[in-house]
TrEMBL record:
GO MF entries: bent DNA binding; DNA-binding transcription repressor activity; minor groove of adenine-thymine-rich DNA binding; transcription cis-regulatory region binding
Localisation: Cytoplasm, Nucleoid
Organism for this UniProt entry: Plasticicumulans lactativorans
Principal location class: cytoplasm
Parts of the chain that traverse the membrane: none
InterPro entries (UniProt xref): H-NS_C_dom (IPR027444), H-NS_C_dom_sf (IPR037150)
SUPFAM superfamilies: H-NS histone-like proteins
KW Transport (keyword) present: no
Annotated DNA-binding protein H-NS-like C-terminal domain residues: 71-116
Protein name: Nucleoid protein H-NS
Amino acid sequence: MIAKFEDIDVSALSLDELQALVEAARREITHKEQTKLFDVRNQIESLASSVGRSVEELMNLDARRKRAAAKPAATERVVKYRNTTDASQTWSGRGKRPRWLQEALDSGAKLENFLVA
């Protein structure tokens, strides 16, 4: 007869016996989890088969929906302003003004001088 957990007096067990019990419980938990996952996998395969599809086909259908609903890629901002002394420094006109432009404006330059034609 298998003892129920309530029937086991764990306080009477030695440290080695407790560690062995814990290890046995861990092995049993792992076994039961694997068995449950195997059963779930069989159920999923059975459901897919019942609609004439494979599990892979069903998963790809879901991926296609997500891709179709995905937000389009951000477009690159158009350069509206360029530094006249360093052409690699640009600004799209959005957000905070870059330091090079703000310093030039503080020195008396006009914003129109940096417009890209």
